[in-house]
Amino acid sequence: MKGDQPMHSLYSSKDTVTTEKVLFIDFDQCLSEETVGKLSSIAGDKEVIIDKGNPDELKQVQYIFFLIEDYRVETLRFIEDRLEELKETNTYSLIMTAAQPTKSLFPYFMQDLNGIVSLPFFLENGRRVLNSLDEFGIFLEQKLHCDLVTLIQHKKLKDRPIKRLKLRVEDVQYILTENEKKVLQHILDGHNNRKIAELMFLAPSTVSTVISHLLKKLGANDRTDAMVQIIRKGWVDALR
């Protein structure tokens, strides 16, 4: 451990170096002073560090919670980059959502994520979460278990031909406008701009503008890249 190296923090529960540190990266700035105090109390003898940016040295910490309020593209990319940095380390990394988490976060388990939990759940069961990580190396909030079982079942059916790719609207409700969601679904259905304009009773120029905004939000170069991005993010269900 490199415990004697300084780490930028906005709040620390201890004035002296402790053997274990819990870092909450408050990317969307969800935490109040009262909540910070509760987190410190839950952690017990562990040192709690709150950071709103990108700490200089992540490897000093035993537990890292990436606290997010919504699933914006830039937020998820930030998490992807940090998880890549933490590979081959002994750090437990979890995504913590301000509200109830969704199954769209499951793909991050492929990047050595150790769990998904909501802030309200952690405030009630934080010690249980930390103990589970120490014992099993993973924690998944109970409400997500059923979704995970369903996902595994879908994986077993992957050899069946895909009839349609369906956008999971609930996963992009805070990211895309209603028109952008509808246009994206039509793109997934394989329609060109003219057909989309007919189906939505819009001018072709309006559809082109919507697609331009859509690509910018997704950080995609073209329609094909946009499809790749949303599939990679887990925002699409394959109907078989």
From TrEMBL:
<dbReference type="InterPro" id="IPR000792">
    <property type="entry name" value="Tscrpt_reg_LuxR_C"/>
</dbReference>
<dbReference type="InterPro" id="IPR036388">
    <property type="entry name" value="WH-like_DNA-bd_sf"/>
</dbReference>
<dbReference type="GO" id="GO:0006355">
    <property type="term" value="P:regulation of DNA-templated transcription"/>
</dbReference>
<keyword id="KW-0804">Transcription</keyword>
<feature type="domain" description="HTH luxR-type">
    <location>
        <begin position="169"/>
        <end position="234"/>
    </location>
</feature>
<dbReference type="GO" id="GO:0003677">
    <property type="term" value="F:DNA binding"/>
</dbReference>
<keyword id="KW-0805">Transcription regulation</keyword>
<dbReference type="Pfam" id="PF00196">
    <property type="entry name" value="GerE"/>
</dbReference>
<keyword id="KW-0238">DNA-binding</keyword>
<dbReference type="InterPro" id="IPR016032">
    <property type="entry name" value="Sig_transdc_resp-reg_C-effctor"/>
</dbReference>
<protein>
    <submittedName>
        <fullName>Two-component system, NarL family, response regulator DegU</fullName>
    </submittedName>
</protein>
